[in-house]
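Sequence, structure tokens passed on for absentees:
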Amino acid sequence: MGGLRCVDGSYLTVTPVACRDSVGKPYEVTLELHRDGAPYGSVGERCGWLLTRLARGVDEARTGRGPARRWADPDDRFPGGEPEGELFSFRYRSRSGPSGGELSCRLRTIPLWEGSRWRVTRRAYVEAWGATGVGMRAVLTSAELSSFVRGLLEEAEGCLEGRDMARNAREGAGTGETR
């Protein structure tokens, strides 16, 4: 069960729950959200492959690969070349369209005044919205985001009875094709 302390002091718990096929075999995950222990929403149906890709991207960025190498501090390094952008956005989907909750992660560039000069940092803003419209926000470094996502993936693989989420991504999950 992954969790984040939010800027308002509340605690967001994110728990992967197995999606099962017609014979009951787990094949992917959905994320259950709780705010301070109370049910908050269910988002991201079949999002495990995307979380796997994100974890890999954050880890590569932290080593200074690709566009992330322009950031001196590894905590400022995130995947993608844009200084600000969306890393993920999971919503609750019903047959009638989006409703319920949302969990998203956007990058923000933040200038900080340090003594006699500006220092520019980047942070991941993880935001959750419940069905009631009340939002929560946690601000994370790339190391904290990596730890959070890796924890979700570890738990997801456990609820999938040992199935490797990375294998799902390699097999073309989300693309309609297999390799």
Summary: The radius of gyration is 17 Å. Helices lie at 48-62, 142-159, 165-170. The chain has a mean pLDDT of 87. The first strand starts at residue 2 and ends at 5.
